[in-house]
Amino acid sequence: MATSQIETVSTGVDKAKLALSVVLLLAALAGFYFLAKQGAMVQWSVLLGGLVLAVGVFLVSESGKRFIAFCRDSYREVKKVVWPTRKEAVQMTMYVFGFVVVMALFLWLTDKTLEWVFYDLILGWRK
Fold this sequence. Notes:
mainly alpha, 0% strand, elongated
């Protein structure tokens, strides 16, 4: 039986780190727009510096550490995937294209048959 756990921010210090991260992000965005008269170089420097600081503060928080662990686990799982060879990928693509063509022909024939039945046989309309 699987138990579901609700993950919450546990400590006040961790909450403060997350709040600081959000404040740094907002300050970086505000600085980018308020420093428009200073030139593009200053604007982008403030934005990128603020983003780097915000991400840095986030990554040292408990949520950031869990995020890093999740990324590592995901990367390990991706390395376990058995990717198809080029031949297999081309083969499967051709199967899909073939199926699409067959379905298109089937739907076209169904449409034309229904059109013939309704307009020519039942209603007697000629085009």
